[in-house]
């Protein structure tokens, strides 16, 4: 028994000198595990045999851990019963749950807005991608443009002056005209095999609230030339025709 | 250089630029990430050494992964620009799709498809974020819209 006591003292001593870090490696050794079991069985006899501080520490540690685990079991039982909570605890719990739910809802909302913008810009007929593709097709199929610019015509939106935008994507520039009407401008930079040019597209709302192209014009600055690909003098013309037809039908 | 695209490299060179930019982004971001992670996972008293070791070991790897992604993305983007002769968001989404699929090709068709869809979704979301920020940050300015008219009343 005395031999064993010396061993214990050395063990605790080494634990102290090496610090907490060494504990797991000690515990993994089978020899020490057996001593640990022995202590569990005979803690009382050891404390009686020697009044060493190390044993007290060991004993206390073991006692504390068992106490802690018992406490945690009781605590878990308490939290499961909602009726036994105080009002303050209930308020705190409700606030936590509602905060979590609001964060989730906010995230879903932001994601929804982003998805809306993606779908709108990519697929809707008045979205910039579709308008750009249609306008570029019109320019490419125009014989005068083909002749002057040279046949493979590249189209892109220019890089911004600060150079921050990495991709030269085409975007609408939404402006309000000085007479108060909404306009969407689109500038397409064209690169033919012979010469460069820019196309300007102006869209505005007609009196039915539909976006209508007012003009699509290709300007070639080096020849000081403008090619009109599309020009609507009166954006409400189609609507007037419809109204005329309606009147004729009524008559 | 022409006056239309200053500040920007033409297409084959932009791949190098993008690869380097992606490497720097991955290395810096990975450096911060692995510094914190290394400090958290090292024992007390050796936190700084552990953090530096983790950064030295891991952040160049992450930077390399980013560089592969960015370089391949830029390559596909340039190829699509050359084929389609125009630049629109579909180029970006398609090159994200192709990059994701290409990098996961060794995992089989299923893994490649999943990764490709993930890449396309990431690029689509980035596009959506740029559209949304462009919409919400700048209100439409009031200006005189250029009123261009043809000389003859009826063109063509």
From TrEMBL, chain A:
InterPro entries named in the record: Tim21, Tim21_IMS_sf
TM stretches of this protein: 97-119
Annotated localization: Mitochondrion inner membrane; Mitochondrion membrane
One GO cellular component term noted in the UniProt record for this chain: TIM23 mitochondrial import inner membrane translocase complex
GO biological process: protein import into mitochondrial matrix
Keywords: Membrane, Mitochondrion, Mitochondrion inner membrane, Protein transport, Transit peptide, Translocation, Transmembrane, Transmembrane helix, Transport
Pfam families xref list: TIM21
Subunit structure and binding partners: Component of the TIM23 complex.
Known role: Essential component of the TIM23 complex, a complex that mediates the translocation of transit peptide-containing proteins across the mitochondrial inner membrane.
Protein name: Mitochondrial import inner membrane translocase subunit Tim21
From TrEMBL, chain B:
Source taxon at top rank: Eukaryota
Pfam families to which the protein is assigned, alphabetical: Tim17
GO biological process: protein import into mitochondrial matrix
One CC-aspect GO term: TIM23 mitochondrial import inner membrane translocase complex
Cellular localisation: Mitochondrion inner membrane
Membrane topology value: Multi-pass membrane protein
Keywords: Membrane, Mitochondrion, Mitochondrion inner membrane, Protein transport, Translocation, Transmembrane, Transmembrane helix, Transport
The keyword Ligase belongs to this UniProt entry's keyword annotation: no
GO MF term list: protein transmembrane transporter activity
UniProt keyword annotation of Ligase present: no
Family, similarity comment: Belongs to the Tim17/Tim22/Tim23 family.
The protein's name in its UniProt record: Tim17p
